[in-house]
Structure formats: structure tokens, C-alpha cells
Predict the 3D structure of the following.
Amino acid sequence: MRSGIDVAEARMLVLEAAHPLAPETVSAGQGQGRVLAESIQSERTLPPADCSAMDGYAVRRADLAGASAARPLALPVVFEVPAGGRSARALEPGEAARIFTGAPIPDGADSVVRQEDTELEGERVRMRIEPRLREHIRDAGEDVRVGDEILAAGDALGPAQLGMLASLGRTLVRVHRRPRVAVLSGGDELVEADGDPSGGRIVASNAYSLAAQCVEAGAIPSNLGIARDTPEDLERMLGAGLDADVLVSSAGVSVGDHDHVRPVLEKLGCRLVFWGVNMKPGYPIAFGRFEDRRGPLVFGLPGNPVSAMVTFDQFVRPVLLRMAGRSRIFRPTVRAILEEGLEKKPGRLHFVRVALERDGHRIRARTTGNQSSGVLRSMTLAQGLLIFPTEASSIAAGSEVDVQLLDPDWLARETAP
Amino acid sequence: MRSGIDVAEARMLVLEAAHPLAPETVSAGQGQGRVLAESIQSERTLPPADCSAMDGYAVRRADLAGASAARPLALPVVFEVPAGGRSARALEPGEAARIFTGAPIPDGADSVVRQEDTELEGERVRMRIEPRLREHIRDAGEDVRVGDEILAAGDALGPAQLGMLASLGRTLVRVHRRPRVAVLSGGDELVEADGDPSGGRIVASNAYSLAAQCVEAGAIPSNLGIARDTPEDLERMLGAGLDADVLVSSAGVSVGDHDHVRPVLEKLGCRLVFWGVNMKPGYPIAFGRFEDRRGPLVFGLPGNPVSAMVTFDQFVRPVLLRMAGRSRIFRPTVRAILEEGLEKKPGRLHFVRVALERDGHRIRARTTGNQSSGVLRSMTLAQGLLIFPTEASSIAAGSEVDVQLLDPDWLARETAP
């Protein structure tokens, strides 16, 4: 087991153990947010035929040579193109056909004049422009041809991808399974949120924040509940989490004498990979795994609420995203101007909770008050985690810093473009 | 009814009609992603008593004056502080007490030496440092005091907020209702995704992408299905959507002769506010509302797949976010370097689909190929929408441009910090 390693090494060790989960078949409608485990080739041509991109009139361009607002030209409207079907006959010279967006261009026509550039007068339509060749015509296969690879394995399914799958007639897709995470709280002092907090007992609130972090990362959490500090209780409850993909315990795995978690995990077959990462908050984080993937990846997170959230964010979140098949597994980062000076001892990377403010094209960052790892409130006010590098001892006010975005929506302007 | 208005005016008109929905009470566990309709005052002090921030030993600081790694000082370990309870007696001078993270500081102790700075020798512990006063002690109420406003009405419930609510013992919260959106497709040429596409019929794929956009915005979509181009069918199907908060139809509301939507809506009591916005893609978008909020907000989106998605994104999405109680309702924007020159006619704001690439601290943007509003594939490849302003006619390669981020995760570095 390694101890006192840097954040980068710890991240490497956890990601080394994380693999995309096996595919499953789901209906496309259930696939939102999932990641494709297959590539999608089209069996269709889209649009299936040359079609109109506008509501208007299909014409022969030569008939409108020289037409303008000052000198409109009128053509008889001889038929209407049915939506989703072929026209009964071709368009002859000197004729116009009423057409709607998406309807197939009749034989003979080579351009569309949109509604807005026309005026209907009885059975004739006055055209105020001379269209370009094939203007407002979408070519058959412009979007998709048979055999095109439309989506690649590894693509995440968002609205555009789901619309695309529907238009190809794909109602079932192979996607990576969502990771299942078992969350365990450990400690004799803990009660559930609706429990009695008298006598110095505190709520096992980490189970709630960690479960929400799982959901945000697209995983499925289950709460194993609160284990008491006895080997028997721990073995029973940890054992209940062994069929999950990831087992997260908060508190428990530490150097404390009360720590029965490590021997129980080892008895269950889990090998501890590291304990202790040079970071703040969150030094006492442990990571273990089973030989030959015979059990879940195991994270022993610190008990302090902020430490638990930050270590989850740095190590468990990328693991869950990788298991779900995603390639972008880290938090988005931005550069920001730090509004105040910061100091620390070298040797640990600090994740400093910061509130962000937009200032024209620049972003300003200031700390969210008390940075104690017990003060969860500092997380509720933070839009980002400032990276205060391991070996640095100070950052001057006005410096540019890297900030991991916890809430990318924050980048939105208050006013719209 | 207004026609041919600019994007900013259209946005103002739709947002003027959008209000946060009435609150409902949900269990905190079901509250993730919802927005508080009440402020949360604490009825608890957190931590409830002075407590240890570390596993280690509670001491009287004066007993360790001058202690160092070179000259450690040893104290007898006289008792262990029970987790979640008071110690049986106070710490006397010259004594140490075993303590674990979160446990209450015994009377008499004024500092904690963490485990890593000690060495246990039988019943005595050697301390390698002289702690500062109250080092590693969290003060009672450091996080929260009784009566503190912990969360404000309008705060969104993320992991930190849910952990905070749990620690306060709040299991029920008042949040804004999620908007319900009825999605209707209109057109004789349309079939469902599993329908027969022969004879030039096409899948009503907008219903799928729009439903997914609703879900991404936290709303609850329901698919009304495909209405045929008859007043009777439209009246029946639009009528089925009148109890929703928002009614979205794709295609239908246009200047086309086939458009029975507008008269049907008017018959049902809906007043059209505007038709036609100076934008591309998406000019033929319509917006209507009912007097005295007696019906849903109604959006008639264009039928072209990209136009439907982009107009939803610009107008329906902020409306849904405002209904859900959110204050940041627009897409995050970033500045990017445009890699190619762009030209257009002045008079319409263009939303250009772009792929983004990170280049150190800069972001580079290039168009995702064919920008036809029928080509949904260009949306599947886009991470952002470039704003090509209404009155501009060209943007030179190398210029800085504003880009709305469709996928903020894209801002992540490939490698971790």
C-alpha cells in the first residue's frame, strides 16, 4: 500500500482500475445521457428525396429570369405537392407548384421561392425575386447516406443524437451500463436525517451529498445505511455492497484505532492500493480493489463533509464517468483572477472553494469564507474549486489561477446575447 | 401580433410571460436539481459542540510546550472520548485523551495533536509537535448556528445543499414544481420512429430531440403524437395539451396554407404574440399565450430539425428554467478564436454550429460542416453555437467570437490538474 502520494498519482491509480462497464440494450428513449457502446451506421438516406427547405412555390428558375420587387413575375399555381408523397405530374415550363417545408420537389422544378417573396392573386402567384439554381432545395442524402457512420462508439446521447437515432428508425441502442454505487456511513455518533440528534449525535449527511454526487455523475447510488464501529457490523454492511461497481464509505478507513474497516475489507478480499493523498481537504482518503475485478472499487472517504465531497469529486467522479463510457471525465476548468492573496505550507495541493463572478470577458474568484473541511456551507456557496498547487506557498492577489467549475451554468451571462 | 422581430425582443416577450411555478412539498431526497421556494433557517447548531477535526489526542497545550520531532514529549492516555457522547470526566493537567474526528472535545482540553504527529508506546503517547491553541478543534456552531439562513429561496438543490439539509434534519422541502411540456408534431408526412418510412415519409424526429431538450432543462415532456393537417385533428390534439405549462408544436405554425394551427389555437383562446424572428436557423418561430394564464405558453417551432432544436434552446429552454425557479437561465458563453472566415447577409442573427478545441488557455472554434437547417448531423458534432450578430456581414478568420456552450464538459482538459 502506498501512502502520502500526490493527487496526480492517486488519480492515475484509481483510473487504472476503472473500465467502461459492459454494454446493455435499451430503448433509445431511455438512452438519454448514456454512452454508445456501438457505432451507428445509417440504413436510410435523409432526406429520402430532394425536398423543399421552405414553405413556398416550386418553380423552373428560367421562368423567373429578371423578377424583382419592382418587376414581379406571375405564374399559375397548377398543383400542390402533397406532404410525404410524390406529385401526380411533373412541373411544366411556365408553371408553379405550391410546396411546403420537407415536401419532395416535383420533377421539372429546379428551385423554390419562399412564401415571403411572393403574393398570391387568385390562381396565380407573383414572385418578387429571381431564385438561384436549387435555392431552398435540400438534396436527397444531404444529411445522411446509407452506410454513413452517424454516431461513434463513445458518443454520449444528447438531444441531437436522440433525434438522429429516431430519424434513422433506430429504436434500440447498445449503451454502457450505468455504474451502481453502494454508499456506507460509519460511526457510532451518526443518525439518519430524520433521527434524534440529541446527545451530540450528528446526521450521516455525507450519505446524502455523496448519493447526489453519484446521481449528478449519472450513476445509481444505494444507501447501505450506518455501520456501527464493530467488525461484525462492518463486515455485514460492507458485504452487502460487494455486488456494486463502486463501494464508497465515508469515515471509517483512517488511521484511527476505531478503524475496523481496513481489516474487514482485507478479510473480504480487498487489497488497499493507497491511503493518504497530499491534498487539503481530504488527506485521509483510501482506495482499494479486488484481484481480477472480483469485487467493487472501494473508496474510503474522510468523514468531514467537505473532505468527503471534494475527494469524491476528484477521484470517484472520474471513475464513474469512465465506467459509464465517457471520455471527458474531468471537471471543466477556467482561468480566473484571484481577488485576495492566499498562503499555505508547501507539500499538499489545496482545493479552495471559490465563488466566481463575471467581469466582462474575465472571471474573478474569491474564497467562500471559512475553509475548514467541516464547514459544508462553504461548498453550498462555491461555484468552483481553485487549484493551489502542491509546492506553492502563496498566490498573490490579482494572479491568474486555474479553477475547476462545479457549476458550469455560472458561466452564463445574466443577460442574453 | 408582431412579425420579423429581433432575437432580443423575442426573448423579452417570451420571458415576460414566464413565471416560477407554484411550490410543492417534496422529500429532500427527491429534491435534487429542484429550486427552493422557501428559505431554510437552521434549528440546530453545527457542530453541536466543540469537536475534533482529526483523529489524534486531546491535550492541554501547556503540557506540550517545546515539544518537537527532535524532542518529543510523552503523556499518559487516560481515557478515550466516545464518538457522539460526552466524556465521563474532564482532562486534567499532564493527561492526553484518545479522540476521533467529530468527537466532542473533553472539558479541560484546548488542543488536538493529530495521530500522524504522535507515536503510541503502551499507555503513553509521544507527541512530536507543540500544537497551537485550539489546533484541530472545530468550534461549536462553526458551520451553522440556530436561526442562520442556510439556503435562500431560489437556491438550486445540489449535493452540498442536500447534505446541508440532511445535517439540519430537514427531510421535506418546498420547491418549485417542474414544468410539464406537451410536445406535438404536425404533418401528414410524419411517422413515429418505429413507423414505415417508405413513400417519402419521414420520422417525426423533432419530438424525440425536443423531449430530450425538455429533460435536460429539468422539465417533464409528454409526447402528444403526430397531428394530421386537418383542423379537427389539430383541435383534438392541441386540446389535449392545454393542461401543460408549455405546449410545443414543431412545424404547423407557419405562413403555409396548410397551417390550421393558428386558427385552431385562436379558437381555443390562444393569442399569438409574434411570428417570425430575425434569426437563422429558425426564422418561422411563433409564440402565443392565453389571457390571464388560462392556458399554456405555446411555441410553434419550425419543422427543420436544427431550426427546431436551436429555437427551443434560445426561447423554450430559458422559459422552462425560469418556470422551475432558476435565476441563471441562459447558456454559458465563452470567447473563442474563429478558425475560418464567415459571411452572411445583414438582418438576421445567425447561430452557427461550431466544434470547439482547447489550445492552452484559448479556445478555438470551427464550423461543423453543412449549416443547412435540415442537417441534424451538424448539431451532433457541435459543442457550441457561435453568435454571428444580426447586423454583421462577415467575421474574419482569427477573430474573437462569443460562443454559447451546449456542452460545458467540453471545457475540461483532457488531462487532470
